Each structure stands twice: as structure tokens, then as C-alpha cells.
Hints:
Pfam families: ABC_tran
CATH superfamily of the domain at 50-123 and 199-289: P-loop containing nucleotide triphosphate hydrolases
CATH class of the domain at 50-123 and 199-289: Alpha Beta
Order of helices and strands: HEEEHEEEHHHEHEEEHH
Strand order of the largest sheet: 6-7-8-3-9-10
Keywords: ATP-binding, Nucleotide-binding
Protein name: Multidrug ABC transporter ATP-binding protein
Organism: Streptomyces cacaoi
InterPro entries: AAA+_ATPase, ABC_transporter-like_ATP-bd, ABC_transporter-like_CS, P-loop_NTPase
Number of helices: 8
Amino acid sequence: MTNNSRAPDPGPDPDSTPGTDRDAAADRTPPTPAAPPADPTRGTASDAAPAVHARALTVVRGRRTVLDALSFDVAPGTVTGLLGPSGSGKSTLIRAVVGTQAKVTGTLDVLGHPAGAPPLRSRVGYVTQDPSVYTDLTARQNLDYYAAVLGIPRRDRPAAVDRALTDVDLTDHADDLAGNLSGGQRSRVSLAVALLGTPELLVLDEPTVGLDPVLRRDLWHLFHRLAARGTTLLISSHVMDEADRCEQLLLVREGTLLAAGSPDALRARTGTRTVEDAFLALVETARPASAPHTGEAPA
């Protein structure tokens, strides 16, 4: 598991004197994006092992049940949305998937390994809600530093950094200090950090919060391009109008999984026109049988 957006450690560049190697020139041929599949159907994805496999996943914090026996699969190479209101357990579930959540019981396998296992460190990218970058370094210097942390060879770093900057549309601001960037631009630097290692699973916690509509649209286009290359994306959000941008949905409320499926399937199941209406219908259906849950404290 690679927590590529962890809070910055003010330590020195792992293999260079600060300020001398961040602009080292070399070249690495970026991977050629695969052509998008004609239809990334569930039937095709189901033939492969799930990228995330959860059974009876539970997190108890004191007397509070934060996640209550969740069972679901996330198909590889898809964009899966984790949707629910604030305090529903989304961030706790995200942390469990990337291996940073304590007191997790049940089964949670990621890319064929228990969540948080050492082999996942180079295969999973994680973007937290708050951007974690060095404000006194440029966007490019931040990426070069994290590329060194990830163990990307020195000769390959410039191309890896350029590819990540291009993916998040920050090439025009690559040499601006992160402290001078807007909040949305700093969030994109954090996303670029997560993309440095070309992760197989990219986990994003509320990546579009506070962004303008154009940038939100552009990020969702990027997410689907990444899925077309074979990356699996798990994206949390409390904004229901983003549901139709996802191929699959996990709808959560008060630590329980209300439903899982495609937006069309959830609308058909509830006889509603929007995913938000489907969510509300599922809440009403579940309410009589549901024991009260306190949910998670806001992250």
C-alpha cells in the first residue's frame, strides 16, 4: 500500500542534496495508454478477481460501530463511487482499504493481499481529502521528492514527473511554488503524487470537494482515462450528482451498505429517476429494520 499523499516529512531528499537533483535530466518513455474498451461491462470485469473484496468488514471504535459488516467487491479497471452523506463511514472505509485504519475485523483483501500488506505499497495510491505538499517547493520539486521516496530510479524521474503533471493538467504551473497555487491546484499536485507510481488501485477521498465545475469535470475525465488504462479507482463523495460519472456505486449510510450496483441498476431497483432519489428510497426501505448507528466522526 502506498500512501502517496501522506503528510510531508521535512526530512531531506532521500538520495540527493536538497535543491541539486530535483531537476535531473533523463528520460523515461511513459506508458502508452491502452485504447478504452468498447464497453467496460460488469460481465467482463467479473471474470477477473476483484480489486477489493470485503466480507463482514467491521470497524468498532469504543462503543461506536463505524462500519457494520460490509460485504462488497470492486471490479478491476472500473470507476467505483463510494457515496453517502458526511459521517456515514466513507473515510473510515477508505482508510481500511489502504491499510491505515485500526481495529478492522472481517475480510478485506486488496489486489489479492490483505489490506495494508507490504506487497501493496507500490501498487496502491491514496489521495486524502486535504492536499499534503511542501508549500516551499514547486509542484515539480514536490513530485521529484516523492518519486525518490517511491524508489523511482533517478534517470526515470523527470519523465515520470512530467507524465503526472500532464495527467493533472499542471504543466503550466509546474515551476510555481505550491504555496502560491490555489487550493484546487494543490489538490491536483497531491493527485499527481499518487499517479507517480502508476498504481493499480487509486483510492481518492472526496477529491472534488471545493473544486469549480470545470475542474470537477476535467478530473472525472481523467479518472475514466485512468480506468481505460486498467487502473481501478475507488472514489468517495457526498455529492450525489457525481453518481452518474461512476460505473459502479457503493451507497453507505450510518456505517451500513444500503446497496451496490450501477447507477442504472439502482434506479431500476427503486423505480426512481435519479441516484439521489434511489438513495432516499433505500434509506426509507431500510429504516424499519435498521438498528441505530452513530456513524463516524467527521474526518
